[in-house]
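Troubleshooting log. The previous structure file for this entry was overwritten by mistake, so regenerating from the original sequence record. Sequence copied from the archived sheet and checked twice against the printout by T.R.
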Amino acid sequence: MYCVKCGVKLQDGVERCPLCETPVWNPELSKGEFNYPEHYPRAQKESRRPFAIAMTVICVMALVVILTVCFKLYSALRWGGYAIGGLALFYIIFVLPCWFRRPPVEVFVPVGHAAACLLSLYICLKTGGHWFLSLAFPVSMIGALLFTAVACLLKYVRHGKLFIFGGFLLALGGFTMLIEFFVHLTFGVPMFQWSLYSMIGFAVAGGFLLLAGMIPALRRSLEKHFFF
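Regenerated output below.
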């Protein structure tokens, strides 16, 4: 038996959910009475299209204001290019998926990384930098692969969430070291200034989740409190 509000698995004989305090409703004990609880699981998710429409209008208005100010003051785009790029990145990552009832993560996650990569290329070209191919591009591509893989695993694999999150944290720690390595190659700064500490932190957290996935009592406790 499960809680009708938060979905936590309940032990036999309990009268309230230990997590959200919702009264337990047992249809076998109702004896024909309509003693339904006041909380019901929603049949379907609410549409996010009103939010998408509102944010689209706001983004279009912001775009018009940026273009008007830049061409009125400078007769050129100037800083408006960075603002428009950031606005487009925000729209692609946060607003565009809201137009879909079930946005495919295997599409939108790499698309978001590609948009960030294009924005960094624009900034690099406008500022005359030399860091795109040696830093921004590899970091964006590796990040896209990592986050897309995790998003797909969480979407299509029903069990083993603790192992997925644990492996993700371990990979994220290695990813931070790769970032510092590419910074080292690009700008010549010393290695292991900060990534070693982040690697240790992610390794401890990831190792704990992997260990929890192998210990039934600890796994059930985490699943109960964090809905893994």
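The radius of gyration is 24 Å. Archived copy saved in two places this time.
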